[in-house]
Amino acid sequence: MIHLAKEDVKHSYGKFIVTIFGVGLLLGIVLMMMGVYRGMIVDAEMLLKDIDVDLWVVQEDTLGPFAEASTIHEDLKYSIKSIQGIDKSEAITFQNLQIMLPQSQRKEKVLAVGFDVYGEINPVNPKHLVSGRPLRVNHYEMVVTDKLGFKLNDKVELGRAVYTVVGITHGTVSSNGSSIIYISLKDAQELQFSYSNKRIQSDAQRGIESSKSHMANTVIVTVKAGYNTEQIAKEIRKWKHKSVYTREQQNEVLTKNVTEKATKQIGFLAGILTFVAIIIITFIIYTMTMDKIKEISIMKLIGIPNSMIVKMVMEETLILSVLSWVVGNVFIRLIYKHFPKQVALEVNDSLMLLGIIVLSSIITSYFSMKKVISADPALAIGG
Amino acid sequence: MKNTVAIKVENLSKSFGKDDSYIEVLNNASFSINKGELVALVAPSGAGKTVLLMMLGCVVEPSSGNIWIGDEKVYHNKWLSKETRKIRQEKIGFIFQAHYLIPFLNIIDNLTLLPQSNGISDKVSKAKARELLNYLDIANKEKAMPYQLSGGQNQRVAIARALANNPKIILADEPTAALDIERSIAVIQMLKKIAREQDVAIVMVTHDERMLPYCDRVMKLENRGVFFE
Question: Considering the entire predicted model, what is its pTM?
Fold first, then answer.
């Protein structure tokens, strides 16, 4: 049996390939936007997942520590630890810093996570530690993300001190996509809350106590099995006058307050690009059909059924859609690692795009099919 | 007794428009054409030759009258079949001014497309196509694409395509218009041979009076009527 679509594609091979590449690149960009969208969500959740605690205790009436500034006393961790049902409790700091990159004279924004090296909760996920070791001493050691380009034993100047890189992690980023460095709580407090001599002198003249080196941004807590996390959170709010967020609430604060607008924007853009791709595929199929309208009239005149011609249009639509999707996937998988921020490509997103494109193409090829069905066989006669 | 009539037309009329724009092309025309006949249809430009051809080809609906193709009455003041396409698919072959082969199909596929669309198997339709190509002396071109053949060769393929569905009638719209005199005569002689050997009636619109002596009869369309010379 003659396969009209196959023969037509074979005949206009070059044109078809160029079209597939054009649409494919567009679909690749759609996939990239979806990947950026997913990447932002993954980034936002990465730190929470690595820290893996049940409760976040922050300054009263704040959305800290990611969505809003929060400062609490470090020793709060002891009084929280004494509450029945608490398993572990540690103070932790988060601070945005500029760090000089090793290969260039350029500074890059990083998130410094400060934690008690001898404490019970270590935010460095061993799964992410690709070389070196975790922090072991209270001063001047640092674990860094591989994206920053440091090697083990590199010396990094930060504040008034020089740190040694002792460990390198992979894939550790903050909610806004910045690389993470891990330092001890003591060092972090010094960086965050200790001011320059001049500032201390100036503050002293004004009667201000400027040292807050016993402060932290949050106290992170794990709850013993069998205890109600919500109940314990309620208790801390009541007796300690602090804001407390459960794991889910903190996740929501992050996604709603920190990344929501950005992810919505990217999602919106991905939607528009998908729509544009559908319009382009529709237009291409329509143009391809109109290019063949004379042949279609001849086929109809000699008695070829509409169903056979419609099948040709439909199959060409499907071939174009599916092959463009394949090209788009290959294209994005070749380049996504070169993007500065994480592009999280998910098979489900890709399959969803295939479904949308195929379904929309079939629906919109209706215009071409309408043209086929209404083509006048008389057009073939009389030149 | 075997019916020798391939086309029979009775009181066929066709008009377009209303009031000021009313045009009558045909008024109560009646004629018949036998199997094995090659009939030339001649008329001045704009007289309605193509319209008549399209009515015989079940493409344009007449205003009134009757049409038979072979034994089957296909029109009686309206089409008697819901799908006139089916009549074309099974009973009518078409030849055009240009060859109008499907450019993305090779020669054998151009010939087998119509029979296969009518449920004829690939094997049977190809055997018939090869037979026709052989008959029309272009047997070695079955894998070629239309753009690889000369105008004359393509016109022969187009004639073969018109025969591929074993039609009762072939309607040819100026098939020699694009050919020189020698090739035109060759095509007319080929059509005459086909009409005889395949037992098919051929109605051929032509402007070229030099072709008329080669036809069995000449049908003139004049003053909205049909006359045979």
Answer: 0.76
